[in-house]
Design a protein that fits this description.
This protein is α/β, with parallel strands linked by helices. 36% of the residues lie in helices and 21% in strands. The longest helix has 19 residues. The model has no long low-confidence stretch (mean pLDDT 96). It holds the Pfam family GFO_IDH_MocA. GO terms for molecular function: nucleotide binding.
Protein backbone atom coordinates (compact mmCIF):
# COMPACT_ATOMS: atom_id res chain seq x y z
CA UNK A 1 0.00 0.00 0.00
CA UNK A 2 1.18 3.49 -0.79
CA UNK A 3 2.59 5.42 2.16
CA UNK A 4 1.49 8.67 0.61
CA UNK A 5 -1.31 10.62 2.25
CA UNK A 6 -4.57 10.27 0.33
CA UNK A 7 -5.66 13.74 -0.79
CA UNK A 8 -9.04 14.94 -2.03
CA UNK A 9 -9.51 18.21 -3.93
CA UNK A 10 -12.60 20.42 -3.85
CA UNK A 11 -12.65 23.11 -6.54
CA UNK A 12 -9.60 24.37 -8.40
CA UNK A 13 -10.46 22.88 -11.79
CA UNK A 14 -9.78 24.28 -15.25
CA UNK A 15 -7.36 27.18 -15.41
CA UNK A 16 -7.70 28.04 -11.72
CA UNK A 17 -4.42 29.52 -10.42
CA UNK A 18 -5.10 28.32 -6.90
CA UNK A 19 -5.89 24.85 -8.21
CA UNK A 20 -2.59 24.30 -9.97
CA UNK A 21 -0.72 25.88 -7.04
CA UNK A 22 -2.17 23.36 -4.57
CA UNK A 23 -1.85 20.35 -6.85
CA UNK A 24 1.79 21.01 -7.71
CA UNK A 25 2.66 21.92 -4.11
CA UNK A 26 1.15 18.70 -2.80
CA UNK A 27 3.47 16.69 -5.09
CA UNK A 28 6.76 18.50 -4.44
CA UNK A 29 7.84 16.64 -1.31
CA UNK A 30 6.34 13.27 -2.36
CA UNK A 31 3.90 13.10 0.55
CA UNK A 32 0.50 13.12 -1.16
CA UNK A 33 -1.49 11.31 -3.81
CA UNK A 34 -4.69 12.80 -5.25
CA UNK A 35 -7.25 9.99 -5.06
CA UNK A 36 -10.60 11.78 -5.27
CA UNK A 37 -12.05 15.13 -6.21
CA UNK A 38 -14.85 17.45 -7.23
CA UNK A 39 -12.92 19.89 -9.39
CA UNK A 40 -15.94 21.46 -11.04
CA UNK A 41 -19.71 21.71 -10.34
CA UNK A 42 -20.39 20.48 -13.88
CA UNK A 43 -19.84 16.70 -13.76
CA UNK A 44 -18.78 16.28 -17.38
CA UNK A 45 -16.25 19.09 -17.04
CA UNK A 46 -15.17 17.56 -13.73
CA UNK A 47 -14.39 14.18 -15.31
CA UNK A 48 -12.77 15.77 -18.38
CA UNK A 49 -10.43 17.78 -16.18
CA UNK A 50 -9.50 14.70 -14.12
CA UNK A 51 -8.53 12.92 -17.34
CA UNK A 52 -6.56 15.96 -18.47
CA UNK A 53 -4.36 15.93 -15.35
CA UNK A 54 -4.26 12.11 -15.18
CA UNK A 55 -6.29 11.60 -12.00
CA UNK A 56 -8.29 8.32 -12.01
CA UNK A 57 -11.97 9.03 -12.67
CA UNK A 58 -13.47 6.28 -10.50
CA UNK A 59 -13.49 8.66 -7.51
CA UNK A 60 -14.42 11.85 -9.30
CA UNK A 61 -17.77 12.71 -7.76
CA UNK A 62 -20.75 14.72 -9.01
CA UNK A 63 -20.79 16.95 -5.92
CA UNK A 64 -19.32 17.46 -2.47
CA UNK A 65 -22.00 15.60 -0.52
CA UNK A 66 -21.57 12.55 -2.76
CA UNK A 67 -17.81 12.64 -2.20
CA UNK A 68 -18.24 12.50 1.58
CA UNK A 69 -20.95 9.82 1.40
CA UNK A 70 -19.04 7.53 -0.96
CA UNK A 71 -15.65 7.97 0.68
CA UNK A 72 -17.09 6.98 4.08
CA UNK A 73 -18.21 3.68 2.54
CA UNK A 74 -14.58 2.78 1.79
CA UNK A 75 -12.29 1.06 4.30
CA UNK A 76 -10.43 3.62 6.41
CA UNK A 77 -7.11 2.61 4.86
CA UNK A 78 -8.43 3.48 1.38
CA UNK A 79 -10.55 6.60 1.87
CA UNK A 80 -9.41 10.20 1.50
CA UNK A 81 -7.50 11.35 4.59
CA UNK A 82 -7.33 15.10 3.94
CA UNK A 83 -9.30 17.42 1.67
CA UNK A 84 -8.10 20.70 0.18
CA UNK A 85 -10.95 23.24 -0.02
CA UNK A 86 -10.23 25.54 -2.99
CA UNK A 87 -13.74 26.76 -3.76
CA UNK A 88 -15.11 30.33 -3.67
CA UNK A 89 -15.25 31.77 -0.15
CA UNK A 90 -18.92 31.12 0.65
CA UNK A 91 -18.41 27.35 0.33
CA UNK A 92 -15.45 27.11 2.71
CA UNK A 93 -17.47 26.93 5.93
CA UNK A 94 -20.11 24.31 5.02
CA UNK A 95 -17.53 22.09 3.34
CA UNK A 96 -14.90 22.35 6.07
CA UNK A 97 -17.50 21.77 8.80
CA UNK A 98 -18.89 18.63 7.19
CA UNK A 99 -15.39 17.29 6.53
CA UNK A 100 -14.39 17.78 10.17
CA UNK A 101 -17.61 16.21 11.43
CA UNK A 102 -16.81 13.11 9.37
CA UNK A 103 -13.22 12.74 10.53
CA UNK A 104 -11.31 14.23 7.60
CA UNK A 105 -8.27 16.47 7.94
CA UNK A 106 -8.67 19.79 6.13
CA UNK A 107 -6.44 22.19 4.18
CA UNK A 108 -8.52 25.31 3.53
CA UNK A 109 -7.96 28.37 1.39
CA UNK A 110 -8.41 31.76 3.07
CA UNK A 111 -10.48 33.40 4.25
CA UNK A 112 -11.43 30.28 6.21
CA UNK A 113 -15.10 31.34 6.38
CA UNK A 114 -17.09 34.43 5.42
CA UNK A 115 -17.95 35.48 8.99
CA UNK A 116 -16.32 35.47 12.41
CA UNK A 117 -19.34 33.60 13.82
CA UNK A 118 -18.77 30.79 11.30
CA UNK A 119 -15.08 30.72 12.21
CA UNK A 120 -15.92 30.20 15.90
CA UNK A 121 -18.35 27.40 15.01
CA UNK A 122 -15.65 25.77 12.90
CA UNK A 123 -13.19 26.11 15.77
CA UNK A 124 -15.59 24.29 18.11
CA UNK A 125 -16.11 21.60 15.47
CA UNK A 126 -12.36 21.05 15.19
CA UNK A 127 -12.01 20.74 18.97
CA UNK A 128 -14.44 17.81 18.86
CA UNK A 129 -12.97 16.27 15.70
CA UNK A 130 -9.34 16.44 16.89
CA UNK A 131 -8.09 16.30 13.29
CA UNK A 132 -5.55 18.53 11.55
CA UNK A 133 -6.69 21.84 10.06
CA UNK A 134 -4.51 24.20 8.03
CA UNK A 135 -5.29 27.57 6.47
CA UNK A 136 -3.13 28.31 3.44
CA UNK A 137 -1.60 31.67 4.17
CA UNK A 138 0.91 30.68 1.53
CA UNK A 139 3.57 33.28 2.20
CA UNK A 140 4.39 31.83 5.63
CA UNK A 141 6.00 28.96 3.74
CA UNK A 142 8.83 31.04 2.28
CA UNK A 143 12.20 30.20 3.89
CA UNK A 144 13.13 33.88 4.35
CA UNK A 145 9.80 34.67 6.03
CA UNK A 146 10.47 31.78 8.39
CA UNK A 147 13.98 33.10 8.95
CA UNK A 148 12.48 36.51 9.77
CA UNK A 149 10.20 34.89 12.35
CA UNK A 150 13.06 32.99 14.01
CA UNK A 151 15.39 36.01 14.09
CA UNK A 152 12.72 38.14 15.76
CA UNK A 153 12.01 35.34 18.24
CA UNK A 154 15.74 35.16 19.05
CA UNK A 155 15.86 38.92 19.74
CA UNK A 156 17.93 39.90 16.70
CA UNK A 157 16.21 43.29 16.36
CA UNK A 158 15.32 43.81 20.01
CA UNK A 159 11.99 45.13 21.21
CA UNK A 160 9.64 45.81 18.27
CA UNK A 161 8.15 49.29 17.97
CA UNK A 162 7.03 49.73 14.34
CA UNK A 163 5.43 47.45 11.76
CA UNK A 164 4.65 48.28 8.12
CA UNK A 165 2.94 45.74 5.85
CA UNK A 166 1.57 46.37 2.37
CA UNK A 167 -0.14 44.22 -0.23
CA UNK A 168 -0.65 45.99 -3.56
CA UNK A 169 -2.28 44.53 -6.66
CA UNK A 170 -3.82 46.18 -9.70
CA UNK A 171 -5.94 43.44 -11.24
CA UNK A 172 -9.39 44.84 -10.36
CA UNK A 173 -8.45 48.18 -11.91
CA UNK A 174 -9.46 46.92 -15.36
CA UNK A 175 -12.84 45.74 -14.05
CA UNK A 176 -13.98 48.21 -11.41
CA UNK A 177 -14.42 51.13 -13.84
CA UNK A 178 -16.87 49.18 -16.01
CA UNK A 179 -20.26 48.83 -14.29
CA UNK A 180 -21.28 45.78 -16.34
CA UNK A 181 -18.00 43.97 -15.65
CA UNK A 182 -17.85 44.65 -11.93
CA UNK A 183 -21.26 43.06 -11.42
CA UNK A 184 -19.98 39.74 -12.82
CA UNK A 185 -16.85 39.25 -10.65
CA UNK A 186 -17.48 36.97 -7.66
CA UNK A 187 -14.93 38.76 -5.49
CA UNK A 188 -17.09 41.88 -5.73
CA UNK A 189 -20.24 39.97 -4.78
CA UNK A 190 -20.79 39.90 -0.99
CA UNK A 191 -22.97 36.77 -1.33
CA UNK A 192 -19.96 34.83 -2.60
CA UNK A 193 -16.91 36.66 -1.24
CA UNK A 194 -18.17 37.80 2.16
CA UNK A 195 -18.23 41.36 3.46
CA UNK A 196 -14.85 42.45 2.09
CA UNK A 197 -12.97 42.16 -1.18
CA UNK A 198 -9.60 43.86 -0.76
CA UNK A 199 -9.10 43.41 2.97
CA UNK A 200 -10.71 39.98 2.96
CA UNK A 201 -8.65 38.71 0.03
CA UNK A 202 -5.19 40.25 0.39
CA UNK A 203 -5.17 42.58 3.40
CA UNK A 204 -5.71 39.56 5.63
CA UNK A 205 -2.44 38.11 4.30
CA UNK A 206 -0.59 41.21 5.52
CA UNK A 207 -2.36 40.90 8.88
CA UNK A 208 -1.35 37.25 9.16
CA UNK A 209 2.25 37.98 8.15
CA UNK A 210 2.59 40.56 10.92
CA UNK A 211 1.39 38.20 13.63
CA UNK A 212 3.33 35.25 12.17
CA UNK A 213 6.68 37.01 11.99
CA UNK A 214 6.51 39.11 15.17
CA UNK A 215 4.82 36.60 17.46
CA UNK A 216 2.73 39.53 18.72
CA UNK A 217 -1.04 39.95 18.67
CA UNK A 218 -2.76 42.88 16.98
CA UNK A 219 -5.13 44.25 19.63
CA UNK A 220 -7.00 47.09 17.93
CA UNK A 221 -7.38 48.62 14.48
CA UNK A 222 -8.68 51.71 12.67
CA UNK A 223 -9.65 51.26 9.01
CA UNK A 224 -10.35 53.58 6.08
CA UNK A 225 -11.67 51.93 2.89
CA UNK A 226 -12.21 53.06 -0.68
CA UNK A 227 -15.05 51.60 -2.76
CA UNK A 228 -14.53 53.95 -5.76
CA UNK A 229 -18.18 53.77 -6.90
CA UNK A 230 -21.46 54.20 -4.99
CA UNK A 231 -22.96 51.01 -6.47
CA UNK A 232 -19.92 48.91 -5.52
CA UNK A 233 -20.54 47.14 -2.21
CA UNK A 234 -17.00 45.83 -1.70
CA UNK A 235 -13.80 47.61 -0.72
CA UNK A 236 -11.06 47.62 -3.35
CA UNK A 237 -8.52 49.66 -1.39
CA UNK A 238 -7.85 50.34 2.27
CA UNK A 239 -5.48 51.47 4.99
CA UNK A 240 -5.56 50.05 8.52
CA UNK A 241 -3.73 51.49 11.51
CA UNK A 242 -2.81 48.83 14.06
CA UNK A 243 -1.93 48.75 17.74
CA UNK A 244 -0.17 45.70 19.10
CA UNK A 245 0.81 47.18 22.45
CA UNK A 246 1.10 50.60 24.05
CA UNK A 247 4.34 51.33 22.23
CA UNK A 248 4.08 48.89 19.30
CA UNK A 249 2.13 50.34 16.39
CA UNK A 250 1.99 50.05 12.63
CA UNK A 251 0.01 50.09 9.41
CA UNK A 252 -1.47 47.68 6.86
CA UNK A 253 -1.84 49.11 3.35
CA UNK A 254 -3.81 47.07 0.86
CA UNK A 255 -5.11 47.72 -2.65
CA UNK A 256 -6.52 45.90 -5.66
CA UNK A 257 -6.51 49.09 -7.76
CA UNK A 258 -2.83 49.99 -7.45
CA UNK A 259 -2.34 50.47 -11.17
CA UNK A 260 0.53 48.44 -12.59
CA UNK A 261 1.20 46.49 -9.41
CA UNK A 262 1.33 42.71 -9.67
CA UNK A 263 1.60 40.89 -6.33
CA UNK A 264 3.39 43.41 -4.15
CA UNK A 265 3.30 41.99 -0.64
CA UNK A 266 5.98 43.54 1.57
CA UNK A 267 6.59 43.54 5.30
CA UNK A 268 9.04 45.54 7.42
CA UNK A 269 9.55 45.10 11.17
CA UNK A 270 11.56 47.70 13.09
CA UNK A 271 13.00 47.17 16.57
CA UNK A 272 15.29 48.95 18.98
CA UNK A 273 18.40 47.18 17.61
CA UNK A 274 17.56 46.84 13.92
CA UNK A 275 14.99 46.11 11.24
CA UNK A 276 13.98 43.34 8.86
CA UNK A 277 12.33 43.74 5.45
CA UNK A 278 11.00 41.15 2.98
CA UNK A 279 9.29 41.45 -0.43
CA UNK A 280 7.19 38.67 -1.96
CA UNK A 281 8.25 39.49 -5.52
CA UNK A 282 11.90 38.99 -4.46
CA UNK A 283 11.32 36.26 -1.89
CA UNK A 284 14.86 34.94 -1.64
CA UNK A 285 16.20 38.11 -0.03
CA UNK A 286 15.73 39.09 3.62
CA UNK A 287 17.14 42.54 4.32
CA UNK A 288 18.66 43.18 7.75
CA UNK A 289 18.81 46.88 8.64
CA UNK A 290 20.95 48.58 11.26
CA UNK A 291 21.96 52.10 12.32
CA UNK A 292 25.63 51.21 12.78
CA UNK A 293 26.31 48.41 10.26
CA UNK A 294 26.06 48.07 6.49
CA UNK A 295 22.90 46.56 5.02
CA UNK A 296 22.96 42.76 5.24
CA UNK A 297 21.13 40.37 2.91
CA UNK A 298 20.20 36.86 4.02
CA UNK A 299 19.48 34.22 1.35
CA UNK A 300 18.00 30.68 1.55
CA UNK A 301 19.99 27.49 1.95
CA UNK A 302 22.97 28.86 3.89
CA UNK A 303 24.05 27.39 7.22
CA UNK A 304 23.59 30.74 8.97
CA UNK A 305 19.81 30.35 8.61
CA UNK A 306 17.53 28.83 11.25
CA UNK A 307 16.43 25.20 11.33
CA UNK A 308 12.87 26.27 10.39
CA UNK A 309 14.14 28.20 7.36
CA UNK A 310 16.48 25.42 6.22
CA UNK A 311 13.69 22.85 6.65
CA UNK A 312 11.75 24.72 3.98
CA UNK A 313 14.66 24.91 1.54
CA UNK A 314 15.00 22.12 -1.00
CA UNK A 315 17.84 23.41 -3.20
CA UNK A 316 21.43 24.59 -2.65
CA UNK A 317 22.09 28.34 -2.28
CA UNK A 318 21.68 30.30 -5.50
CA UNK A 319 18.78 28.22 -6.83
CA UNK A 320 15.64 30.39 -6.51
CA UNK A 321 12.53 28.89 -4.95
CA UNK A 322 9.11 30.47 -5.32
CA UNK A 323 5.40 30.33 -4.61
CA UNK A 324 4.99 26.62 -5.40
CA UNK A 325 7.77 25.79 -2.95
CA UNK A 326 6.22 28.05 -0.33
CA UNK A 327 2.87 26.27 -0.55
CA UNK A 328 4.68 22.93 -0.62
CA UNK A 329 6.27 23.74 2.74
CA UNK A 330 2.80 24.19 4.23
CA UNK A 331 1.71 20.84 2.79
CA UNK A 332 4.88 19.28 4.23
CA UNK A 333 4.06 20.58 7.70
CA UNK A 334 0.50 19.28 7.43
CA UNK A 335 1.81 15.85 6.38
CA UNK A 336 3.98 15.72 9.49
CA UNK A 337 1.02 16.65 11.68
CA UNK A 338 -1.26 14.05 10.06
CA UNK A 339 1.37 11.36 10.60
CA UNK A 340 1.87 12.41 14.21
CA UNK A 341 5.47 13.45 13.64
CA UNK A 342 7.21 16.26 15.50
CA UNK A 343 6.98 19.64 13.75
CA UNK A 344 7.64 23.33 14.38
CA UNK A 345 4.49 25.36 15.12
CA UNK A 346 5.56 27.75 12.36
CA UNK A 347 5.27 25.10 9.62
CA UNK A 348 1.63 25.80 8.75
CA UNK A 349 -1.08 28.30 9.73
CA UNK A 350 -3.78 26.76 11.91
CA UNK A 351 -7.46 27.19 12.68
CA UNK A 352 -6.56 30.00 15.09
CA UNK A 353 -4.96 31.95 12.23
CA UNK A 354 -8.22 31.55 10.34
CA UNK A 355 -10.28 32.77 13.30
CA UNK A 356 -7.96 35.73 13.82
CA UNK A 357 -8.21 36.59 10.12
CA UNK A 358 -12.02 36.73 10.19
CA UNK A 359 -11.91 38.86 13.34
CA UNK A 360 -9.59 41.27 11.50
CA UNK A 361 -11.77 41.40 8.38
CA UNK A 362 -15.03 42.05 10.25
CA UNK A 363 -13.42 44.55 12.61
CA UNK A 364 -11.88 46.52 9.76
CA UNK A 365 -15.24 46.71 7.96
CA UNK A 366 -16.90 47.80 11.22
CA UNK A 367 -14.25 50.47 11.83
CA UNK A 368 -14.74 51.92 8.35
CA UNK A 369 -18.54 51.88 8.55
CA UNK A 370 -18.55 53.62 11.93
CA UNK A 371 -16.56 56.54 10.54
CA UNK A 372 -12.97 55.28 10.94
CA UNK A 373 -12.92 54.53 14.67
CA UNK A 374 -10.73 52.25 16.76
CA UNK A 375 -12.11 48.71 17.16
CA UNK A 376 -10.74 46.13 19.59
CA UNK A 377 -10.17 42.66 18.17
CA UNK A 378 -11.87 39.88 20.11
Amino acid sequence: MSKKIRLGILGGGGDSLIGVLHRVASQINDNYEIVGAVFNPDFEANVAFAKEIDVPTNRIYKDFDTLVEEELKLPKEERIQVCSVLTPNFLHFPMAKKLLENGFHVICEKPMTTTYEEAKILQATLEKAKTVFAVTHTYTGYPMVRQMREMIKAGAIGKIHKVDAAYYQGWINSIIHDKAKRSTVWRLDPKKAGISSCMGDIGVHAFNMIEYTTGLTIKSILADFNYLYEDNQMDVDGTVLIRMDKHVKGVIRSSQVATGEENGLTIAIYGEKGGLRWEQENPNYLYVLSDDKPLQVYKPGHSYNSKLSLGGTKLPPGHPEGIFDSMANIYLGVARAIRGEKYNDGEFPTMMDGVRGLDFIESSVESNKKGNVWINLK
